Fold this protein.
Amino acid sequence: MNKTVIKRMLIGRPLKTRELGDQKLNKLKALAILSSDALSSVAYGTEQILLVLAGVGAIAYWYSIPIAVGVLVLLTALILSYRQIIYAYPQGGGAYVVSRNNLGENAGLIAGGSLLVDYILTVAVSVTAGTDAITSAFPALHHYNVPIACFLVLCITILNLRGVTESASVLAYPVYLFVLALMILLGTGLWKIMNGEVPETLHSPIGTVVPGLSLFLLLKAFSSGCSALTGVEAISNAVPNFKEPSAKNAVRTLTMMGIILAVLFSGTTFLAYYLGISPKVEETVISQIASEVFGRNVLYYFIQVTTALILVLAANTGFAAFPLLAVNLATDKYMPRIFTIRGDRLGYSNGIVTLGVASILLIIIFGGNTEMLIPLYAVGVFIPFTLSQTGMILKWLKEKPAGWKVKLSINLIGAIITFTVLVILFTTKFTQVWSVLLFLPIIVFVFHHINTHYNNVANQLRLEKQHQIKKLEGNIVILPIAGITKVVENSLAYAESVGDTIIAVYVAFDRESEKRMEEKWNAYRPDIRLVTLHSQYRSLIRPLRRFIDVIEEKGEENNNSVTVIIPQFITKKSWHNILHNQSSLLLKAHLLYRRNVIVTTVPFRFKK
C-alpha cells in the first residue's frame, strides 16, 4: 500500500479550490467546533476554585458562590467586548489584529504569541483532562495516561486534516451530548435539592465566618476560576470560517456560547457547594457530583463519557483557531509562509500538524500531568484579553463612530477587569507563571527576525528601473565523473547544450586508477578536456571544491559563469538508494551556498 493510498484513507480525496465555500460553518457547527474549549472549562473551572479554598477547609467552600458570580460578570464583559471586536474586524485575527492596529507592532506580536502558545496549551491541557476523566471511570487505565493522550491528539489532528466541515460534523454530537448531560445533571440535582432529598448539613451556610481566610487566598481562588473563560476569544479569531454574513453569524454563536457557559458553570458550582464536594486527586468534581446525584448507574457513566469527550474535543478549538492566527501572522511576514498554504482538504494543514506535534511533545514532557499548566494557560489568555480591550478603547477614541461612548464603556470595563485578573494571576501564582516573562520576549524576538528576513528578501528581489545586469561572456561547465557510463554520456549531452567550455573532472585515490581513466577518456572523448585530481586522503569532496574554487576565480576574471553538472541516477525503488553512496548529494550540499556557481542535476533513471 503506497503513501498516496494511506493518505487518502486518513484524510480523504483532495478538494478543488472552488469548493472552499462548502467548507464554511453554520452557527450550530461553529458552536460545536469553536466553543468546545470554553464549554469544557465547566469540567474543571469549579474544581480549580475548590482546590484553592480547600487549603483553608471545607468551611470556606461557600465562597465559591460569590467567586462564581465574579467570574460570570467577567464573562459578560468579555462577550460584549468580543461582539464589538467581531463587527470591527470581520476578517478575523482577534486580539492580534486589534492590538497590532491600535497599540502597535509589539503589542500585536505579544497578543499573537500568547495566543499561539495558549492554543498549544489548550490541546495539551484539554486532552490530558479528558484522559483523566476516562481513567477516573476506569482506574485500571491510569498508568497509560500519556499514550492515551498522545493517541487522542493524533486522532483529532487527522480529523482536522480532513477539513473544517467534516470535523465539525463529527464533533457536534459529543459537544451537544455534553450540554444535554450537564443539563440533566443540573436539573436532577436542583430538583432533589428543592424536594428536600439533599440534607443541608453537607455544606456550610453562606456567610459563615472562616478563620484564617485571607484576601490573597480569595483572589487566588478567583483567578483560578477564571480558567473557565479560556476559549472565549476563539470565535473572534475564526470569523472567516463562518458562512455569510460571517460577522453576524459569529456574534450570534458567541452569544449562544456565553449563555450556555454561564448556565453550566454557575449550576455546577452551586451543586458542588450544596453537596459539599471536596476536590480529590483520584476523582474529578463532576464525577463526584454525578455520583451523588445519580449513583454509579448508566446516567453517571453517560456524564463521565460525555465529559471525557468534551474535554478531549475542547482541543479542537485550538485546531480551529491556531492555523487561522498563524495565517494572519504569516501574511504579515512574522511566521513562515508555509502556514498560508491550504492543504488537500482546503484547511491550513501545516498549522494543524504543527499544533498536533507541539501538543504531543508537551504531554510527553509533563508526563500527562498538565494541571500545573492551567495557570500558564489562563495567563496566556488574559494577556491578549487585556491588550484587545485596550486596543478597542483607543480605536473608539480615535474614530468616534455613532454610539462610540457606549462601546468605549464596554471595552473600558472589560479592560479594567481583565487587567485586574492578570495582575491577580501574576501576584498569586507567580511561581507557576513566571516563564511567560521569559518565553514571550523570545517569541517576539523570533517574529521580528523572521519579518526582517522577509523584508530583506523583498528588497533584494525588487526590480530597479536603472539597474542593469552585467552580461556574461561565456559558461564554463564542470562535470565530475566516476567512470565512463551512460550516466556520463547523458550528462555530457546536456553540458554541450549549455556550455561554451566543458571540463570533465575525475578524482583518483591512486596513481594507477588516474592513469587508467586518462587512457579511457582519450579513447572516448578526446575533444573534451579531462582533469584528474589525486586525493591521497581518499576525500572526494575536498579536491573537487578546490578545483571549483580555481575555476570560479578565473571565471570572475574573464566574466564567465561557472556551472557544475552533477550526474545522479534515480533507482526504480526508493529503498535501493541505501545500496549506493550519496556523493552527488554531498557535493550538491557543499556547492549550494556558493555565490557564483550554478549547480545543475542531470538525472538518469533506471528501469529495473
In short: The beta strands are 474-481, 501-508, 529-534, 560-570, 597-605. The chain has a mean pLDDT of 84. Residues 105-137 form the longest helix (33 residues).
